[in-house]
Amino acid sequence: MKLEFTVNGKNVSLEVPPDRRLLDILREDLGLTGTKEGCGEGECGACTVLLDRRAVHSCLTVAAQLPGREVVTIEGLSDCGEMSDLQRAFVEETAIQCGYCTTGMVMSARALLYENPNPTEEEIRIALAGNICRCSGYTQIIRAVKRAAAEERGEAERD
Amino acid sequence: MKIVGSSRPIHDAKAKVTGSVRYAGDFDLPGMLYAAVIFSQIPHGYVTKVNVDRAMEVGGVVEILHCFNTTDRPYNRFRTMKGQKTLEQDRIFQRHVRYVGDRVGCVLAETPQAAREAAALVEVTYDPLPFATTVSEVLEGKIDCIHSEGAVFGEVELAFGKEPEMRPDTVETVTETFLPRLTHMTMETHCCVASWDRAMEQLTVWSPNQSVYGIRTVLAELFDLPYEKVRVVKTTMGGSFGAKQEWVLEPVTAAAALRTGRPVKLVYNRAECMVSTISRGPIHAKFVTKITPQGKIQSMGADVILDSGAYVGNACDYIQALASKFFRCYSYPFAHYTGRAVCTNTPMSGAYRGWSAPEMYTMMEHNLNMAARRLHMDPLELRLRNVALPGEVDRKTGLSLGEIRIRECLLLGREKFFWEKRKKENRAFNAGQTRFRRGIAVGCAGHVNGYYPRFPDYAGVSMRVNESSGIQVLATLHDHGCGTVTAMKMIVSEVLDLPLEKIQISEGDTAVTPHDVGCFASRSTYVIGRALFDCSEKLRDELLEACGRWQNTDSSELWVKDGEIRFSDGRAVSYGDVALWMLREEQKELWVNHQSQSQSNPGVTGAHFAGVEVDTCTGMVKLLDYLAVHDIGQAINREMCVAQIQGAVAMGSGAALSEHMDTNPKNGKTTATMKDYHVRNTPDFLNVRVELIEDGGTQGPFGAKSIGEACYVPVAAAVAGAVNDALDSDLSSFPLTPDAIVDLMIKREQHEA
Predict the structure, then answer these.
(1) Which of B643, B675, B683 sits opposite A94 (nearest CB)?
(2) Contact check, Cβ <8 Å, B239/A134
(3) Which of A141, A158, B494, B627 has its CA 20 to 30 A from that of B549?
(4) Any idea which architecture A85-152 has in CATH?
(5) B684-715, pLDDT tens digit by residue?
């Protein structure tokens, strides 16, 4: 099929089989390797991207679902190498270890903050429930999301 | 201190959070082929034929390697040094397959999709043999033919210390523990890229691994290559926990590159990673303690059977390693140990975070909890009466435990966890209703800081100063993703009083960095960190002396501060200026080498406190509170230590409550999906509290001790102990799943009826 959609704000046109996974389109066809495959079955969240501003597993999303829609990957969050507030919060709160879950985790957090700019800790935990981190106990990740939310609201995080 | 003890992000945090960092699976080399492995579909038998006709018809398929057209030279995936005594049973592809998931061959194609499609079309014909998925079947003699040496390996009987004469009132407690197969579940699956430059006769292998030199020794001898013609480069690692300590994909990928002369990439999917790499082998153990009525341990004993899976791998060493953990936390006169490893037609066992210590302390701590009940003694008090004190000796090694602080961990934890108050509150809570049960427990553990004295342990590093005052360090690091590189930078930064950003440290690359056995055995900070500390001091002295020669000043009147060399008259010059002067005037680079040998291995311990609530109707266990107290000597990168400890609690509570891989006894297939292997996610988990005891006193850099493995050791014991306290039970068949708990409740009801 001919697939036309936008990736990180740019129009993309590709000839792909309709069942080609979004994950493979991003990584292999477009060279956007920031999106990772951890399980291929929607269990780990490493492949999370935004589809029309909502978090989806790119391993469970196929080309046929994409025409005319807007995909944002981790590469689309930073501006010319400058990290977004959310990304900076992950770095500065030491919320990154091996990093393999990080990009998916950030995208899930991004979707949450679009929908709910002032989430409670419980709401953050639920929003990130589909993203597995095997290195940490999630404490620094949750702190980073709280901090980014506060910064985006123009407040200092008081936790 | 300016920087040691502060909190810094991992060195490549920005690259990771923006998605620009390249893991091996992200590599894209010109002309690269993609590999997909053909796995045995039967648990035991001989491959009689491999028919590749249909597979070769798939568009883009270039070559198919298999057990009849590839070297069948045996090797051991766990070897890290030439001459190491290991049993060589691994082969790149097996004609005698021993489990569902054993490698038979691999397809090389122009796309990953073509490689996988073709791999599924390769027709393998087998001559099946009887198979056994349990140790008991093997011990009945069902598969004595699994290896030419039989099915039982590494039988060992050891005794340490002198058994005291037991008084008649000594309390003997016998417990049994079963630990299931675990997978590491690193978020990055196993992957490897290899290339063979025919003109230069140079093999290059890139993989996330824990020992570039270990891989080199195996590949060089497997393919008859001189060591200098094998370059192994460690890539950014998306987690290991021991999973990437053994060489699983590297021999396959190297064989494929050598055959085709093109770069080859092999990436395992999750199912392949779970079944066909390595796992923590199941253990069945009997544990015995003899304790006086006053609560003094007189002896401990363990009888252990390790299910090593289809091949021995590291199992002969692993079964011995269990015995190394008897005296890392408690002091008592005598221990007796018997063990053996048994091969079954199941996935291979291998390295796993803690390398036998978590298994040992899970069974030991469960036994002590049961003993405390029989002694009518508070379990924390029982531990306080037996923990090793500073300067006491590890009876296994004869070496001092140095500045061990397990007693302090227990006392601090008792206070911060509100141990006595919680006991009372839980009693009141449990008396007030019948459905929910609350309990608490403490789990203690001890671990190591490197190999010494079991094996020689050493590290070599070199450091150079460049013209812009940067320090370029060569050290063979293998950052697992836990911040080793940053911690090492912090050590150098502290000694040289230089900003962290000015220090560049390499990771393992056999063409560039010094020989090193690898980053495991909790040796990175203690052993390599110490070498870096000493080398930094040497470099500082060299800088001062060179500056003295340049400025005709006595170097003893110079000192370093804020990245500069200061003079008593107020002047200052940069490190780069001194380096440049040396280059120009002395025609020498400011370059220092240092090698050191480890001479100590102090006790490194932790006491973990868990509080749980068990729903006796559903069997669900909720963690209410968790406090980890660690005897760390000195935290180098504080928040990264805390994050690692919290991560260990997530991983260990999974081992206690939900994680297990099972092999179906009817068809030999093993759990191969995350849907059936439950690790902790955010709603399952809580904010783990961490307390660090930091009073240094060790030969580690700034008095540091290890942490990454030590913090995993006591977790399952603490969580299971709290469940058993809540239910007044003696559950010790892991994991303590809701099903197991509900079964217990039903049995109790039936018994009462």
Answers:
(1) B643
(2) yes
(3) B494
(4) Orthogonal Bundle (1.10)
(5) 899 999 999 999 999 999 999 999 999 999 99
